[in-house]
């Protein structure tokens, strides 16, 4: 608690963390472009600033000065509100993430429930964009997004239940505390944590519309999917929202399965923050690697994967986690 | 040609002339225009799709957005001037366009091509086939994986290899895309010194990289799920539509013009067929990948034995009216990377052709779309269209 | 497991390319070496005695499929040899419509026009793409391979190392 009043604490810390996250996301985009470029045998941005470091600023400026077009028969409220909501919902999940011990905006006792609910809300701005654009391509993209988000919400919840069961609490700080000392849930107990982690990664890729699950914005089929009719900074906000969502998803994975800010060394705030950021970065880079390697799944194959494979696996993983907790409690203390 | 024996179709054929007014779908049908401007229509193709949810009920392709009046233009230009014009038809594999047209002119004139020129033509045609299939593979992966993802990576790899081949052609002819390499009677440029060593290096490098594409694509479970069983063309339909090239070889019909009507130096080398049996998208992919390997093998086999001699079999072309074949008509068909590319030329004895008709394989491949698309979802539309390898410049001329 | 190994193979392929040198050509910061026969822009040449090589025969104008060349021919006395011969009073080439087919180079009987392997400076107005006679003669200093066509096929076949000057003596074709 930085200040006595939780509201002030939340406001100030929230402002700081959100601003920092926006900056980090822009430079994460720079890193992705260079990383993807090297994987493809080319260099990424190079000339705008030293090694292209000013490229995100140039891109943001370019998007700001572009003409802001609203289609004539578009639903104005939905159309204009959707990009704002996209970024808002992506940032909302940040409220319960513990970056270091005590460094959390709102230490809710139902933290997991909160972030699952906020994550499920991401379908609302996507659908608003799809419907409000008055464009058939956007409509198809929006429909697919709803189907995908609703479907993959279920394995996401089930996978997120595993650390809840293993830690015995929905408070994210307590989940991190339960993994202290290197007993990260992804590796200990062996089995439910690892599988749950994989499920969580797949489900959060799908919730975030990342390849190989990016059919709502499938560029080769639907021009630009839900963001077809958006220009200028509104498109920039969608783009930014997607990246924020993926970074926050990586951060959540770190918190739930990789021990959050736990790491060797003394319990210093700065060191804990460093471990958290390092783990999140590693997870993000792995997700980038996956993104730039695979082609996307077809929409019905995606749904088949979810309902026929991920959902039963999720149920199985929850049962495994519960059995582990029950048996480890049965052992004499 | 007993390979053309007719077999019954695999499944009930879709009706391309479906009466859409009387169709009972689950709800209202949505008409979607995968319009001329689209990231994945391989040029400017307009596909009018009637969709029931996400499933296509009827598809009608509209061509003509890239029609440039090439055949009319060829009536106005002389025989000498027409070769650089047809380069621009199938802009991905330019040498084959020129080859077909020039061979038709030679058939009209009756001139003999020296052996060295025939070898150079064959090597160029085969390397051009590799370059064309590499571009196809890259754009195919792009169609499936999107511009921000794994598709782009495969695209960059394929184009990286294609650039090596274009460097080779740059050394030979001076241009990277529209080579203007063939002329009536032979070829225009002779092999420069060190070209054969360059070719061997390039061929070895590309052969070593093809397994990388297989890792990224063919063995990948996501790719296989997207392409197996999709867009199946049965043998009867393929023959009725006049498909050729990799599209028909993937249906199991062993039809290769390089063996049945050998031209250039193909009578001196054995062309092994690349065949598949299922006729779906994955089969077409496999056939093209195998053809890449085969073309590299042919080019390597021929480059060492290029005979010395002239590269031109008639008097040199030094004026615009240098070619004046006698009256008559000639049809020559070659096996271009897309299929049977034919050129039919009618001459009236003057220095300008009376009529040139080019038979583009992409046009006939696109005619399969109204049969293949009903019943598939939108992602499959893009995949099927990509697998037929249409080039609109050629289909529209 | 055989379902997942190819997925891992794909990842390995992509990561392997991280270690390879990127193939980007840092144009225009690094010079790009092109093949000797690469064709980009045009040059009109002078003969060895300093006279303009072009004799104003208009064969290039007739052969061009895009009709981009316009030649105004005249017969004058040469200032170098003193003999009366054909000249081109004005020779313009519109690069906007040129399809870079090299037919003009092929038909020129005296190899006066060649294609150079470096481009013209990029321009900002349409006039920059219109090659006047002055610019064509100024391009003579740009590197170019020998002209193809009947006069030069023999030396062309020997490879890229050849003299850039035009030689007016025709040889029987190879």
Offer a few descriptive terms.
heterotrimer; B: 397 residues; alpha+beta; Cytochrome-c3 Hydrogenase, chain B; three-stranded antiparallel sheet; 15 helices; 45% helix; globular; C: 174 residues; Alpha-Beta Plaits; two-stranded antiparallel ribbon; 5 helices; 5 strands; elongated; disordered C terminus
Shape of chain A: globular
| Total number of strands of chain B | 8
How would you spell out the order of helices and strands of chain A? HHHHHHHHHHH
Task: State the oligomer.
Answer: heterotrimer
Number of domains of chain B: 1
Mean pLDDT of chain A: 85
Shape of chain B: globular
Q: Note the beta-strand portion of chain B.
A: 5-15%
CATH architecture of chain B: Orthogonal Bundle
State the CATH superfamily name of chain B: Cytochrome-c3 Hydrogenase, chain B
Give the low-confidence spans of chain B: 1-9
Approximately what portion of the residues of chain A adopt beta-strand conformation?
Answer: under 5%
Largest sheet of chain B: 3 strands, antiparallel
Residues in helix, % of chain A = 55-70%
- Give a quick account of the main beta sheet of chain A: strands, pairing sense, barrel closure: none
User: How many discrete structural domains of chain A?
Assistant: 1
Query: How many strands of chain A?
Result: 0
């Amino acid at each position: 608690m930085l200040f006595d009043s939780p509201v002030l604490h939340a406001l100030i810390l929230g402002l700081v963390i959100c601003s920092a996250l926006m900056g980090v996301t822009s430079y994460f985009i720079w890193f992705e472009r260079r990383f993807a470029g090297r994987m493809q045998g080319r260099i990424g941005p190079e000339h705008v600033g030293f090694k292209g470091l000013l490229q995100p600023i140039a891109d943001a400026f370019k998007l700001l000065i572009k003409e802001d077009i609203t289609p004539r028969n578009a639903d104005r409220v939905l159309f204009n509100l959707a990009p704002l909501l996209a970024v808002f919902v992506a940032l909302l999940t940040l409220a319960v993430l513990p970056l270091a011990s005590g460094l959390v905006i709102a230490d809710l006792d139902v933290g997991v429930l909160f972030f699952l609910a906020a994550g499920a809300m991401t379908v609302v701005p996507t659908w608003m964009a799809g419907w409000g654009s008055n464009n058939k391509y956007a409509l198809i993209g929006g429909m697919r997004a709803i189907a995908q988000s609703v479907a993959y919400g279920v394995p996401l919840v089930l996978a997120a239940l595993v650390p809840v069961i293993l830690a015995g609490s929905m408070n994210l700080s307590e989940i991190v505390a339960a993994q202290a000392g290197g007993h990260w849930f992804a590796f200990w107990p062996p089995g439910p944590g690892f599988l749950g982690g994989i499920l969580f990664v797949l489900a959060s890729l799908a919730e975030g519309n990342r390849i190989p699950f990016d059919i709502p914005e499938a560029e080769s089929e639907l021009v630009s999917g839900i963001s077809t009719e958006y220009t200028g900074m509104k498109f920039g906000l969608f783009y930014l929202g997607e990246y924020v969502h993926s970074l926050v998803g990586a951060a959540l994975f770190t918190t739930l399965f990789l021990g959050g800010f736990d790491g060797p060394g003394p319990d210093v705030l700065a060191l804990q923050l460093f471990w958290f950021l390092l783990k999140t970065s590693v997870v993000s880079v792995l997700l980038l690697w996956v993104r730039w390697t695979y082609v996307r799944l077809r929409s019905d194959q995606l749904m088949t994967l979810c309902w026929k494979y991920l959902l039963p696996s999720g149920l199985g993983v929850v049962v495994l986690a519960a059995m582990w907790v029950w048996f480890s409690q049965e052992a004499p203390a | 040609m007993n390979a053309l024996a007719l077999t019954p179709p695999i499944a009930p054929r879709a009706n391309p002339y479906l009466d859409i007014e009387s169709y009972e779908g689950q709800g209202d049908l949505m008409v979607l225009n995968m319009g001329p401007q689209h990231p994945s229509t391989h040029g400017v193709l307009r596909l009018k799709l009637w969709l029931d949810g996400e499933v296509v009920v009827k598809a009608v392709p509209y061509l003509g957005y890239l029609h440039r009046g090439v055949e009319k233009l060829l009536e106005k230009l002389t025989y000498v001037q027409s070769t650089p014009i047809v380069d621009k038809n199938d802009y991905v594999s330019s040498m084959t366009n020129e080859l077909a047209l020039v061979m038709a002119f030679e058939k009209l004139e009756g001139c003999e091509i020296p052996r060295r020129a025939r070898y150079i033509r064959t090597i160029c045609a085969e390397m051009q086939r590799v370059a064309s299939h590499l571009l196809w593979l890259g754009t195919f992966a792009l169609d499936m994986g999107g511009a921000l993802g794994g598709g782009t990576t495969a695209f960059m790899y394929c184009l990286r290899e294609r650039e090596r081949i274009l460097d080779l052609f740059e050394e030979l002819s001076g241009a990277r895309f529209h080579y203007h390499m063939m002329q009536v009677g032979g070829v225009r440029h002779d092999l420069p010194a060190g070209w054969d060593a360059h070719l061997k290096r390039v061929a070895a490098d590309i052969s070593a990289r093809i397994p990388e594409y297989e890792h990224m694509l063919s063995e990948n479970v996501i790719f296989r799920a997207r392409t197996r069983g999709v867009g199946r063309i049965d043998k009867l339909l393929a023959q009725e539509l006049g498909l050729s090239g990799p599209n028909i070889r993937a249906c199991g019909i062993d039809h290769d013009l390089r063996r049945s009507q050998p031209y250039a130096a193909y009578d001196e080398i054995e062309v092994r067929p690349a065949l598949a049996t299922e006729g779906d998208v994955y089969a077409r992919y496999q056939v093209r990948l195998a053809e890449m390997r085969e073309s590299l093998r042919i080019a390597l086999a021929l480059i060492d034995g290029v005979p010395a001699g002239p590269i031109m079999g008639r008097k040199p072309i030094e004026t615009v009216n240098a070619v004046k074949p006698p009256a008559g008509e000639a049809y020559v068909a070659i096996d271009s990377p897309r299929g049977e590319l034919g050129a039919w030329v009618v001459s009236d004895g003057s220095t300008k052709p009376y009529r040139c008709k080019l038979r583009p394989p992409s046009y006939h491949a696109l005619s399969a779309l109204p049969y293949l698309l009903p019943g598939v979802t939108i992602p499959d539309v893009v995949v099927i269209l990509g697998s037929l390898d249409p080039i609109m410049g050629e289909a529209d001329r | 497991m055989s379902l997942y190994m190819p997925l891992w193979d794909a990842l390995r392929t992509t990561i392997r390319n991280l270690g390879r040198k990127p193939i980007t050509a840092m144009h225009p910061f690094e010079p790009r070496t092109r093949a000797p026969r690469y064709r980009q822009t045009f040059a009109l040449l002078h003969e060895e005695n300093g006279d303009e090589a072009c004799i104003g025969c208009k064969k290039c104008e007739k052969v061009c499929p895009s009709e981009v060349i316009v030649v105004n021919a005249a017969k004058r006395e040469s200032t170098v040899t003193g003999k009366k011969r054909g000249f081109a009073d004005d020779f313009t080439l519109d690069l906007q419509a040129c399809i870079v087919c090299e037919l003009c180079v092929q038909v020129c009987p005296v190899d006066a026009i060649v294609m150079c392997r470096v481009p013209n400076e990029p321009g900002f107005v349409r006039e920059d793409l219109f090659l006047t006679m002055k610019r064509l003669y100024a391009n003579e200093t740009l590197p170019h391979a020998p002209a193809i066509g009947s006069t030069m096929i023999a030396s062309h076949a020997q490879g890229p190392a050849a003299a850039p000057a035009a030689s007016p003596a025709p040889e029987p074709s190879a």
